[in-house]
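Sanity check. The docking grid for glutathione depends on where the pocket ends up, so I'm generating a full predicted complex first rather than guessing from homology. Inputs follow.
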Amino acid sequence: MDRLRLYTFKLCPFAHRVRLALAEKRLLAEQIEIDLKNKPADFKALSPDGRVPLLVHGPAKLWESAVILEYLEEAFPQQSLMPSQPAARAKARLWMEFANARLFAPTHRLIFAKDDALRRELVAEMVGSVRALEAAVTERSGDGSYLLGDQFTLADIALYPWFEQAATLARFSAFRMPADCRGVAKWCEAIARRPAVQSCARSDDWYTESYQRYFAA
Ligand SMILES: N[C@@H](CCC(=O)N[C@@H](CS)C(=O)NCC(=O)O)C(=O)O
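Predicted complex below; grid placement will be based on this.
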C-alpha cells in the first residue's frame, strides 16, 4: 500500500477532520506539522494554496478537507463513514456544506472582524447555525446518536472539530453556546466517547493556551 502523508497543523479544525477519518479507519499516516507562520519551502512547493490539510498518497495529492474525506472514504472503504443510500449520502454532503458555510465561514470572518456590529451579526449567525443543528438532531432523536442516525459519518466528522473548539471560541469572543441546545450537547458527547475521536482530542485549556501562544508569537 502507498503510504499516506498528511501535512497538518495542530489547531486547524480542517486538518482535525482528516485526522478523525484516518483514526476511524485505523489508517497510519506520517503527519508533518506545518508552522503556518513560517511555511517550509518544500510545503510551499507542494501545496497549491499554501494551506493545510494536504494529503499525499502515492501519486495523489489532495487538498480541501471535504475532498480529502471523500477520497479516504473511496480509497479505504473499510469502517465506512458514509451511508449506503444515495439520499442519505447526499444528506451527509449537505451537512458538510453546512459546516463550511454556516459555522466555519462566519468563525473565520469573526476572527478578523474589526467592527462591533459585524461581530454581533456573525455571532448571531453562528448561534442560528447551532440552533439549526439542534432542530435536526432533535427531530431524529431516538434514532441513533449521530447526525444521520446510528452511523457515525462524514457529516459528524465535518462538524465536530468546530464543536471541540467552541468553548475556546467562547473564551476569545462573544459567542456562547446556547444552553438550551441539549440535543447538540448530547450529540457532541456521543462523538467524544468514540475511541478514535478520543485519540485526536484536545482539552479546552490546551486549545486556549495554544491559541494564546500562536497569536502572541
Ligand atoms: N477549505 C479548506 C480550509 C483550509 C484552511 O483554511 N486551512 C488553514 C488552517 S486552519 C490554513 O492552512 N491557513 C494557512 C494560510 O491560509 O496561509 C479546507 O477545508 O481544507
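Relevant for the grid: The CA atoms of residues 146 and 152 lie 6 Å apart.
Also worth noting: The longest strand covers residues 4-8.
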